[in-house]
C-alpha cells in the first residue's frame, strides 16, 4: 500500500514525534512528487528514501522533518545547505528560512534541483555547483548550516562560517552515522550534541581525502 499525503503527516511525521507546527506546515506545502522521477511517483509519500537516478536518493520525509525541526530555523535565518540533491530538502528549508544557499558537487543534480525548485515555485533558494567542503564564504556567516551527505568529521571551514549562536546539523561517520548538532557559543567555543543514528551517502570531494 502506498501512503497518502495525509498518512505521511499523521503517521510518519506527527506519529514519530515531529511537533513543530512550522515544520509540519512546510512538509505539507512542499509537493514531494515534483522532486522525484515518474517511475517512483506512486511512492511519493512513503516513509523512505527514493532513487532519483545514478545512485542518488531523496531522503525520507521523517528525516527531512527531523533535521529541520532540530536545526530550529526562524523566518529571518540565512541557511547554508551542503548537498542540494534533487532540491526537496532545500524547498522545505525555504519555507522556514529567509533564504537558503545550497551547494551541490554533482553537476547534473545541481541542474535538476534548479529545475525542480522552479517547478515548485520556490524562489528563495540559490544553488551553486561545486565542493561544499569550503562552504560559501562570500555569503557567510550563516544562522544555520545543514549537511545532507556524511563527512567523516565536520569540515572546519563550515564551523567557522556559523554566526555566534548559529547551528550546524550533519550526519557524521562512514558506517554507523549519527546526526550531530553543533552550536557556536563564541568565536572559539562550540557545543556538540549527538542525536539519532542515520544513513546518508558519503560527502564527496575534499571530505573524502
Automatic annotation (TrEMBL):
Its EC number is 2.1.1.77. Its main location: cytoplasm. GO terms for molecular function: protein-L-isoaspartate (D-aspartate) O-methyltransferase activity. The active site is at 59. CDD domains: AdoMet_MTases. Keywords: Cytoplasm, Methyltransferase, S-adenosyl-L-methionine, Transferase. It comes from the Bacteria. The keyword Zinc-finger does not apply. The keyword Transferase applies. It is an enzyme of class 2 (transferase). GO terms for biological process: methylation. InterPro entries: PCMT (IPR000682), SAM-dependent_MTases_sf (IPR029063). It catalyses: [protein]-L-isoaspartate + S-adenosyl-L-methionine = [protein]-L-isoaspartate alpha-methyl ester + S-adenosyl-L-homocysteine. It is found in: Cytoplasm. Belongs to the methyltransferase superfamily. L-isoaspartyl/D-aspartyl protein methyltransferase family. Catalyzes the methyl esterification of L-isoaspartyl residues in peptides and proteins that result from spontaneous decomposition of normal L-aspartyl and L-asparaginyl residues. It plays a role in the repair and/or degradation of damaged proteins. This is Protein-L-isoaspartate O-methyltransferase.
